[in-house]
Design brief:
Blueprint: E1 2-4, E2 10-15, E3 27-28, H1 30-43, E4 45-49, E5 52-59, E6 62-67, E7 70-75, H2 87-97, H3 101-110, H4 115-124
Parallel strand pairs: 2-3
Antiparallel strand pairs: 1-2, 2-7, 4-5, 5-6, 6-7
Length: 126
């Protein structure tokens, strides 16, 4: 997963067919993408976050939401205070979602699969 946004650190996956970099670790098979999309739509709830209002799925310590061909994931504390978590929480989120250069090299070397896709496979028992 690719981390994004300094003011709201999060990760995302993209359907493999929509990837701009073929074989990227943030790609997700169509089967896994559709499973996650349907799960969010079925069990999610409409929540206001800053200026947006999206259907989000709270699952453990994460929150998931879909925008077009992208599924996003971040710490559920990002929803605090209307989408503006405290400085302490934001710092913790950045540490989790903004890996160091050494971490990025390790992920590339290990060929790490997308964590969200892996979670979908684990949930289904694949």
């Amino acid at each position: 997963m690719l981390p994004q946004y300094y003011s709201c650190p999060h990760e995302y996956i993209v359907r493999e067919r929509d990837l701009f970099h073929e074989g990227a670790s943030w790609g997700c098979s169509e089967r896994d993408f559709q499973f996650l999309k349907k799960t969010i739509a079925t069990y999610g709830e409409r929540v206001k976050w800053r200026h947006r209002c999206d259907v989000v799925l709270f699952n453990g310590r994460f929150v998931y939401w879909q925008i077009g061909g992208i599924i996003n994931r971040t710490d559920k504390r990002s929803m605090d205070n209307g989408g503006r978590p405290s400085a302490k929480v934001l710092k913790e989120m950045r540490e989790r979602f903004w890996p160091t250069a050494a971490d990025r090299r390790r992920y590339a070397e290990e060929g790490e699969r997308c964590l969200t896709c892996q979670a979908a496979c684990d949930y289904r028992g694949d």
